[in-house]
Amino acid sequence: MIKVSSNDQLRLVGFNNLTKALSFNLYDFCTARTYAERESYIEYINDKYNAAKITHVLKGVCDIIEAKVLGISDQDYDPWGASSLVLMSDIKGEVSTSQMLSTLSGAAKVKSSSTAMHLDKSHICAHTYPDFLHNGSICSVRVDIDIATCGEISPLNALNYLFDQFESDVAVIDYVVRGFTRDENGKRVYIDHPLQSIQDYIRADILEDYYCLDLSLQRDLIWQTKMLRTKIDEQDYFLGDVDLEDAEVQRRLDDVKREMRGVLHMFPEN
Q1: Is 40 strand, coil or helix?
Q2: Which of 17, 31, 79, 208 has most Cβ atoms within 10 angstroms of its Cβ?
Q3: Kind and range of the H or E element at 104?
Q4: Domain boundaries defined on the chain
């Protein structure tokens, strides 16, 4: 494996066919004290996380990673939930056929058309998964966003934007690089950018709000960061104003926090 440091200028031959896959799962929690509050939360989910708004966020990701949108498909579901799919291409990755063949073969006189080729196979998809406990006391929604890119673009650059767009009590982020390309000497290159931790791509002011756990299998090109929000406004977990000194309110808060820790550490139900 060719290792890349932040100071290296890696020269690749032909086109970059590394696949970089980012999975961003965020969880938003609240507590519903009555059936009416539970229904109000469902209405909130359907408005905040509907297909049109999810698609708007995904198009914003494309802008950040400098990708060209090729096609969009999105769908709202009854009674709740939404999905969105955006096909995209790396603008920088569009080269002419003659350029590609000349570089790959080393021949200076390759005759070919100059038709532009999309060498990338990239997409972003997002799904929402509302969840309500059997008694409806704890409500949550998971937004699952998968970004798969080929070429020079890196989905890690969109992380700060995604945190800014969504409210996240728990976030589980996975990053995997697959495939290989070659350098100018013909050696296989399995990663074209330095990476120690996913946290390196997240702003300091965001990280300050979370407790973070890292998994790094650099030899296997697998990284994971799990995040639990610790800087919270307790009032935000209730639909309506509450007395935070009330014992029942504190019990419900403890239930929500226990649920958040359970999701972070993948604890079984009590």
Answers
A1: helix
A2: 31
A3: helix 97-105
A4: 19-264
| One CATH from 2.60.40.1120, 3.60.90.10, 1.10.357.10, 3.90.180.10 for 19-264 | 3.60.90.10
* The residue type at 263: V
Active site residue 122: yes
Active site residue 98: no
Pair of tokens at residue 123: 């997409």
Active-site entry in 122, 140, 154, 168: 122
pLDDT in tens, 79-129: 889 999 999 886 654 444 344 334 334 433 333 333 333 434 589 999 999
Q: Which secondary structure element, helix H or strand E, spans residue 115, and what is its range?
A: none
Q: What is the SS3 assignment for 51?
A: helix
Hey, what are 154's tokens?
């890196």
Cα–Cα distance measured from residue 246 to residue 105, given in angstroms and rounded to the nearest whole number? 74
Report the residue count for the chain. 270
